[in-house]
Amino acid sequence: FNNNLNQLIRNTKYEITSIMLRLFINIFILAIIASVQGFIIPKPSLSLGQPKASSFATQLHSDSTVGTETPSSSAASSSSSSSTPPQTVDAKEAVKIFGRLAEKYIMLDDSGGMCCYSACSDCEFRLPDGGYKMADQSAARPKWIPSYDERKFVSVGKEHVSNWSTGIFCTGPSVTKGEFVERVKGMSFSPPLGGPYVSASSAGIENDFVLEKLFELLADDKEKLTRFRMGKRIKELGNGSEGLVWSDFIVALTD
Predict the structure, then answer these.
(1) What is the pTM of this model?
(2) For the purposes of burial, counting CB atoms within 10 Å of the CB of 88, is it exposed (0-12), middle (13-18) or buried (19 or more)?
(3) Other residues' Cβ atoms within 10 Å of the Cβ of residue 30
(4) Is residue 203 predicted with pLDDT exceeding 90?
(5) Any residues with CB less than 8 A from the CB of 53 and at least 6 apart, and which?
(6) 127, 144, 204, 232: most buried by Cβ count inside 10 Å?
């Protein structure tokens, strides 16, 4: 019996030793595999909040977001970087202004009315090219923007006040750009001679760009435009003529 018991004990020890050896070998193999694959068993978090992301996941998220630009921000950047093309003067918008400022009647030279119009060769009232000096002129449709605010020819008993003088400088001798724009827009329109045809019903001014450009042209970079300066600049833009016609008006705006 004792021999059998001793044999049983030895067999049991051998089995236990064999099992422990196999377990140790398996753990060793698993440790090697884990170190090769970079597998790290996460430690349980002691906090009650959300578990902290692994450094690998954090780095991956960081790499994927660095330099990323959303579509809206990209579009805004593209829009701001692209240069806006400069506005150009539209002839139809310009004629809407010309038709408000131009008139059918203009007074020219007070000495013109003193000519007898008999084609005298030495007449002091004739022009160098042989034409006659005219006291005034009229047209079927608005043709001239007078270079004067008011003119009187006592010798022939005529006087004329320009529409722009009463329409723009109705409260004083000077106006700001805003006042100029609003008052010209408020003046009545008639289809003028020259430029593209625009009917009175479609002559509303919705874009102030051309009006503002005209103000800057007349004010000569001043903050305010005076009645005197406007008359002077109209004559300059008309190359010395008493009235500014369409051809000179549009050239001045588009030059």
Answers:
(1) 0.64
(2) exposed
(3) 11
(4) yes
(5) 61
(6) 144
